[in-house]
Design brief:
The protein is an alpha/beta fold. It has 14 helices and 13 strands. It has helices spanning about 15-30, 45-55, 65-75, 90-100, 150-155, 185-195, 205-215, 235-240, 250-255, 270-280, 290-295, 300-310, 310-325, 330-340, and strands spanning about 5-10, 35-40, 60, 80-85, 105, 120, 140, 170-175, 200-205, 220-225, 240-245, 260-265, 285-290. It is globular.
Amino acid sequence: MKRVGMRCDVGPGAGIGHVMRCLALAEEVRRRGVEIVFVCDAHTVPWAAEQIAARGIGVERAVSTPDEHGALVGRLGLDAVVFDGYDLDPSVYRAVRATGVPTLAVVDGDFRGAEADLLVDQNLSAELDHPELPPGTIRLAGLQYVMIRDDILALRPSAPPAPRQVAVPKVFAFFGGTDAFGAGAPVVHALVATGVPFEATVVAPTADLSARIAAIQLQPGQHVDVIAPTDQLAAAVREADLTISASGTSTWELLCLGATAGLVCVVDNQVMGYERAIATGTAAGVGVLSDLKDDPSSAAAVLKRLLTDPLERARLASAGWKLVDGLGRTRVADALLALI
């Protein structure tokens, strides 16, 4: 049996987006009879570790140096390596590639020194960019290569969502598995500033974040429930009239699900995806997190329209649903396995 290693970043600061992308590809590759092993510090984010374990996938602790990676490839008998992270030294990519084992690196615009036989940039309009590639590298770019997990695909609607008129809209807000930058509380403040009724469910991974959100004073007709990270995320998104999330890897999952997505630009590396999603009319821009922390009411106008206009919600949801067809991981797996 062939074996593919997936070396990805994960941690309280790094979040879980890299693991989620790799899990989507892992599900597709395993479906074709290939064994998967993750190489990451999943133990630092228990929810991420649970997601990997639930799929029966083995985990090796992350290593850092070129020599350690080369030794790991040999010890595990890997037939290919997938990289997904921002923190690896460029020499690691070169060292693993030099072993002759096929490599794939998932990137987001900036390569950050990544070199591989395949570079995958699954971001909106990435196919319009033409960066200089390392020798012998093939680049797969654009939303046709978005890698979506089984649990998301299972709940993808078969047709674009229709307008849904409700008396009190339901809001679901989450910011990755760790909410490392504390976006939950400023977003709830912004929702409150709209002055209109809503029922919100907000994911808070820590007790401190949960307490800060619970302490926010609401206006009449407004209600907020705070929950821990959940493996029922896709179902929660489908039930919500509006989903608010960071403008990261989860954006493409929301579009695939036909969600009305309100995006928050949490960190600098999300700026490009945030601006492009808003420009193409597939998501609403709630704002940049630093601005929301300074003045949550700056997002009130955008959020009020999303809460009160079912036609606008349906327009955004339909546009996003058409952009992400859920077949991206199949295309990426085809390209990777062709190299083995």
